[in-house]
Amino acid sequence: MKATKALCIGLMGSALGLCSLAASSPAQTAPVFHTSMPAGYDVLLLQPAGTVLTFLGLIECPGLEGAQHITDGVSARIVNTDGKSLAYFPDNFSFRITASLRRVVLLDPTATFAISDQPQDLLLKFKFLLKAHHGLQVREIQPESVQMIGVPADIPYDERVYRVSFNVKDLPVTDRCVLEVLSPEGVRLTKFHFDLL
């Protein structure tokens, strides 16, 4: 009985010691940000053509190269290479969005959309809008420029790559940014997130 009681007291002491150690542990450093970061993908089905459309997203933000996410509970922060905390997103960043009719992602479509255009024509007509969520408020930001890179638009092709660039001022790092990819009629087809915290 005494041995069991001593064992229980020892285990409780060890557990309390581990809790104390965890509570006093320093903030953790997350992986470093890079100039180019994957933003995910989405697979859609276009009707009546029955064609699968895949979107691939990449975030391009040279201003974040080498920055780190310091996880410290409610005091989490982003610090740049000289150790200073960032209060705002870098002023300039872009999304590189690939829209492909090839099966580049072997997953089932997440949604179905009815389109009046031929799928290859649709690839040339996307619109883009950035929404910055700040608590319950949403701010809409139009692209500074939208460029089609790679194969020229006048050459028929089953894949198009867009660089959608933004110039923002005083966009807090606590905001949640969402790039929406829209049809020519303004219907949201997919979205890509750019969150720092």
Oligomer: single chain
Number of domains: 1
- Report the span from N to C terminus: 52 Å
**Unreliable runs:** 1-25
Return the average pLDDT rounded to an integer.
Answer: 87
Biggest β-sheet strands, sense, barrel: 6 strands, mixed
Radius of gyration over alpha carbons?
A: 23 Å
* Shape descriptor: elongated
Query: How many beta strands in the DSSP annotation?
Result: 13
Order of helices and strands: HEEEEEEEHEEEEEE
In helices, the fraction of residues equals: 10-25%
Arrangement of strands in the largest sheet: 7-2-3-6-11-10
Describe this structure in words.
With 197 residues, the chain is mainly beta. The chain has one domain. The chain is built from two helices and 13 strands, in the order αβββββββαββββββ. The strands form three sheets. It has a six-stranded mixed β-sheet with strand order 7-2-3-6-11-10, with no helix packed on it. A four-stranded antiparallel β-sheet has the order 9-8-12-13, with no helix packed on it. β12 and β13 (188-195) form a beta hairpin. Mean pLDDT is 87; it is low at 1-25.
List the helices and strands and how they pair.
Layout: H1 2-24, E1 28-32, E2 36-47, E3 51-60, E4 68-71, E5 77-79, E6 92-100, E7 111-114, H2 119-122, E8 127-134, E9 137-141, E10 145-149, E11 159-167, E12 176-182, E13 188-195
Parallel strand pairs: 2-7
Antiparallel strand pairs: 1-4, 2-3, 3-6, 4-5, 6-11, 8-9, 8-12, 10-11, 12-13
